Amino acid sequence: MSEVPRTGCAETMDALREELQRAAEERSVEGLPPYRPVEEPAPADDLVSESERILADRERTLGADHPDTLLARTNVGGACQQAGHADRAVRLFEQILADGERVLGPDHPDILTFRNNLAGGHEAAGDPARAIPLYEDALSGRERVLGPDDLRTLQCRDNLARAHELTAAPTRAVPLHERTLSDRERTLGGACAKLCPKLTAYSLGPHGLVLAASPVRTGIVSPIASGHA
């Protein structure tokens, strides 16, 4: 996939995105403990093995269709993605979404996460054009089910904007980033607005991961991600 030429607008959005991410990281989400970085994260392939072990345990004790088993399968997909096994991750996310819709229904919050994760899988595999309609569906569902100010909704909108950037469509990306900034300033508070006086884009991205009961992201999203959510 050829690299999209960078523009001054894209460089500015990258710099401002970093400012807003720092602001958001300084303010822990209400009800969650502050983020503490892991000193020595496990190698990616070890994370795949551990995720597969947890999945096997969930399948044995809860059954293949239990919601917690579906989330454990999502963690395997996220671990594969982090380890660079993009094609396997996409196949896993596709099957998880299909099984999840059958078990939980199309509007369950976890299904919206699964759809966002599949979009992120395509993006990580170098196909942001395939990610865009999935992000759009996930965003529409999150706005309807979770509300426009939920952090997972804001994350999904920024994921969509980033996918448009990667397909060289800044005229579609910028309005999404602008709305995300406005909504984040309103929901995260004055500290965010003070640090980010100009157009900014905050992106958790699609690649975060939450293992069993402990959040990791960088990004897919919890319940596994957010999702990254």
Terminal Cα separation, in Å? Answer: 25 Å
User: Which structural class do the helices and strands define?
Assistant: mainly alpha
Uncertain segments of ≥5 residues (pLDDT<50)? 24-36, 193-228
**Roughly what fraction of the amino acids lie in strands?**
under 5%
Shape descriptor: globular
Which sequence of SSEs, written as H and E, runs from N to C?
HHHHHHHHHEE
Number of helices: 9
Strand order of the largest sheet: 1-2
Helix content: 55-70%
Mean pLDDT: 76
Word description of this protein:
65% of the residues lie in helices and 2% in strands. The protein has nine helices and two strands. Helix 3 (67-82) runs antiparallel to helix 4, helix 3 runs parallel beside helix 5 (109-124) and helix 6 runs antiparallel to helix 7 (151-166). The relative contact order is 0.15.
What tags apply to this protein structure?
single chain, 229 residues, mainly alpha, two-stranded antiparallel sheet, 9 helices
Summarize the structure.
Helices cover 65% and strands 2% of the residues.
Summarize the topology.
Blueprint lengths: L7 H19 L17 H19 L4 H16 L3 H19 L4 H16 L3 H18 L5 H16 L3 H19 L1 H6 L14 E2 L2 E2 L14
Antiparallel strand pairs: 1-2
